[in-house]
């Protein structure tokens, strides 16, 4: 609920520029560990070492760690901005780059809110992901109406060209197309019957990648999707659909550089290591990179007790990351938020006991949780890869 309210309030507002100095926070943590103004004790040194932020642990292994952020929250919560600068090396806007937000009315698009996040990233030395140029959801009403007319192709191309061009050389990884697979729609190729789909049904996907490539030749271009992580009913079809789509795109020399795997995990679901490992290997064999793009662990199936929940969610995260990071094609890990203070899951999948979900590495007070430690340990244990 509150997510929706914040989305409404956010419209038309522009996050102020926030420049944060990393040394301020390092100084802060040194002070907290008792290392300022004297010789550090052994315990204090250990505390500082174990406190090495996720961004740095990831970087040591040739990985990039990042998180989703919403512009409104950056403005309202200085602690959030500080935590992001401390822990992350990359940010991605949660909604500010979605078509429906950018072009509510026909006419020039408004990128002010997304520009605010881009500025925050630039001021603080963070890389920027773009999410998303084309998605079947959050499409402006006026555009949706035109998808049934011959103008559809031109409209879709114009959208991709406009946003990717606007962020040219600022976005390092673009989710060019998001969620194009839906086996339940009944097609043999498992492609979603999207508003912009026509025959051949993946032509719009191919077009979008070519347009994106022309608009920003330096960005790495991703196809992003969900539902490929578990052995659940329908997951095999989703994996097949994604592999088939990527194989076709590669065969036709479409400029796709990677697969984004959302990884909205659910603690309590059975994670089959072998299945996921094989899937990653098949994607890698196509010559593609893999980014984990929206990582969080829902605790909706877990009991109320916070300690039990935190432990089980952390274990789930660790099991997933251990397999994921074993695959050298995986280069980027992005969480869908950083702190439990703001998660889409409280509105998307609320707990039955009405307690807030705890799906992210920092708690609502921005303190590191067992999940943070699980991620830190997984990054430390990950094989190094070429940058
Ligand atoms: C979600 C945002 O987090 C919400 O704030 C918004 O209301 C709906 O979209 N998969 C995606 C993301 O690709 O864009 C979605 O983000 C979450 C699921």
Note down, in words, how this protein is organized.
With 387 residues, the protein is α/β, with parallel strands linked by helices. The protein has 16 helices and nine strands. The protein has helices spanning 2-10, 22-32, 42-50, 54-60, 71-76, 78-87, 99-102, 112-123, 141-146, 152-166, 203-215, 235-251, 273-285, 306-326, 345-348, 370-381; strands at 64-69, 90-93, 127-135, 171-178, 220-225, 258-261, 264-266, 289-298, 330-335. Strands 1-2-3-4-5-6-8-9 form an eight-stranded parallel β-barrel, surrounded by six helices. Helix 13 (273-285) links the parallel strand 7 and strand 8. Helix 10 packs parallel to helix 11 and helix 13 packs parallel to helix 14 (306-326). It is globular. The site of (3S,4R)-3-hydroxy-2-oxopiperidin-4-yl beta-D-xylopyranoside (XIL) has 7 residues, from loops.
Which descriptors would you attach to this protein?
387 residues, alpha/beta, 44% helix, 14% strand, globular, binds (3S,4R)-3-hydroxy-2-oxopiperidin-4-yl beta-D-xylopyranoside
The radius of gyration is 21 Å
Uncertain ranges: 1-17, 23-49
Kindly estimate the percentage of residues that lie in beta strands according to DSSP. 5-15%
Bound molecules: (3S,4R)-3-hydroxy-2-oxopiperidin-4-yl beta-D-xylopyranoside
Overall number of strands: 9
The helix count comes to: 16
> What is the helix content?
40-55%
Largest sheet features? 8 strands, parallel, barrel
- Tell me the series of helices and strands, N- to C-terminal: HHHHEHHEHHEHHEHEHEEHEHEHH
Tell me the overall shape. Answer: globular
* Biggest sheet: strand arrangement: 1-2-3-4-5-6-8-9
What is the typical, i.e. mean, pLDDT? 89
Which structural category do the helix and sheet elements fall into?
A: alpha/beta
Distance between the termini: 40 Å
């Amino acid at each position: 609920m509150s997510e929706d309210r914040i989305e409404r309030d956010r419209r038309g507002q522009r996050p102020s520029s926030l420049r944060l100095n990393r040394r301020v926070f390092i100084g802060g943590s040194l002070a907290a560990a008792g290392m300022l103004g004297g010789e550090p004790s052994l315990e204090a040194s250990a505390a500082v070492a174990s406190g090495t932020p996720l961004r740095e642990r990831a970087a040591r292994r040739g990985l990039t760690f990042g998180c989703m952020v919403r512009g409104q929250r950056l403005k309202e919560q200085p602690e959030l901005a500080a935590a992001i600068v401390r822990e992350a090396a990359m940010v991605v806007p949660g909604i500010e780059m979605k078509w429906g937000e950018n072009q509510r009315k026909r006419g020039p698009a408004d990128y002010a809110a997304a520009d605010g996040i881009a500025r925050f990233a630039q001021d603080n030395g963070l890389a920027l992901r773009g999410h998303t140029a084309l998605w079947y959801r959050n499409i402006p009403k006026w555009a949706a109406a035109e998808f049934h007319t011959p103008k559809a192709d031109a409209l879709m191309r114009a959208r991709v060209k406009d946003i990717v061009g606007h962020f040219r050389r600022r976005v390092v990884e673009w989710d060019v197309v998001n969620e194009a697979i839906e086996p339940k729609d009944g097609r043999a190729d498992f492609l979603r019957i999207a508003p912009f789909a026509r025959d051949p049904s993946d032509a719009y996907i191919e077009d979008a990648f070519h347009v994106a490539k022309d608009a920003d030749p330096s960005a790495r271009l991703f196809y992003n999707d969900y539902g490929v992580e578990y052995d659940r009913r329908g997951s095999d079809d989703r994996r097949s659909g994604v592999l088939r789509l990527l194989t076709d795109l590669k065969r036709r020399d479409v400029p796709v550089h990677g697969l984004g795997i959302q990884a909205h995990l659910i603690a309590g679901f059975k994670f089959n290591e072998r299945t996921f490992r094989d899937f990653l290997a098949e994607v890698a064999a196509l010559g593609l990179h893999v980014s984990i793009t929206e990582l969080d662990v829902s605790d909706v199936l877990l009991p109320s007790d916070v300690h039990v929940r935190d432990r089980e969610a952390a274990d789930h995260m660790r099991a997933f990351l251990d397999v994921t990071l074993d695959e050298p094609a995986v280069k980027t890990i992005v969480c869908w938020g950083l702190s439990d203070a703001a998660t889409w899951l409280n509105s998307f999948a609320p707990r039955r006991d009405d307690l807030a979900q705890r799906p992210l590495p920092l708690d609502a007070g921005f303190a590191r949780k067992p999940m943070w430690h699980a991620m830190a340990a997984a990054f430390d244990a990950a094989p190094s890869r070429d940058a």
